[in-house]
Fold each of these.
Amino acid sequence: MVLKKVALGLGILLASTSPIKNNINYEKQKELIEMYKNLPLKYNENTSQEIKNFINNARKNIGVDYKWEGRLTKRLPGLDCLGEIFIPYAETFGGSWRDFSYNPSEIIEKEQLGTPVQGLDGVLKEDIDFSKFKEGDIIYFLSDNKIKDKPLAEIDNQKYWPWHTAIFSNENRYKIIEASHSKGEVVERDIFEILKENRTKGIFVTRMNPQEEP
């Protein structure tokens, strides 16, 4: 009964929120986290079995040490944020982590991890429409700090480069799975913990078709 009341309250708040630029308000969404944090961590009923398997394979790595360029091999132990996407993908859909490009811009251009999600394909964090996320989405967190790769977005004449990646793992509670440098290991946590960081300026999201391979 308690969960039903919480879910009902969440639905009312989502319906009544006055969004920024027709999106769910970022600050309001953080408040909703407190309302539904006790809801069960379950998949959306529309999530395909392939994507569920992908997320479950990623979830198996929770607790693995973060290591730059880590690929769970003797030479490259541990996992970094891309490794925590490549390895579960290969386990789920076949192939090898070696099949993927190293630079995020090439991964996106070659559609190795799906295609850009309209409305989330380069958006500032205060303008995110959280209702557009689906389980299994690949999130590139953007910064205005230049790196040795092409920018993934340009908004109001400002270019943005990726500084981190994660898997969107749960629509019910807005969770992500990531190999976190700050935590020192693979974790599953609220997306807002990264969005609130000063260096995170926005996101770029791609979505996989289970029939596609890298």
Note: The longest strand covers residues 158-170.
Amino acid sequence: MPKNTGKHPGGRPTKYNDQTIPKTQFYLDNFEALGDKIPSIAGLADHLEVTRETVHDWLLQEEKAEFSYNVKRILQRQEKVLANKGLDGEFNSSITKLLLTKHGYSDKVEGTLGGPGGAPIPIQYIIQPVRPAQIESGEKEQEDGDEEEA
């Protein structure tokens, strides 16, 4: 059985190197000059010449905390650009709305019908006799003690 020398556990060598952080910061500052309307993980991955999955893998690695911080800044900038350009009408509202859902935005309205504290709404039924002549004339029945005005 071959002895593990500790050089590499196998597989393709990582493309993460000392240029990854500066390239990530460059992408954040220059995404539009690089041809992107909004900063994105896909745009960053393309700039770094890796896949989106690789970027997501790097995000999970504790030793890449600075990279993770920069990606969070990219997503924050994405949210800001979407909100601003969506409000200005520069971006299609449907696409903007769809992309902002990835940042926790929603146009869903939640409503429940209930009484105080979520209790059922009490319903009170009042049954009053009505004479056929009152129905035809639209009169209301007088309650006991009410006198008819002259």
Note: Helices lie at 20-30, 41-48, 52-59, 65-88, 93-100, 132-137.
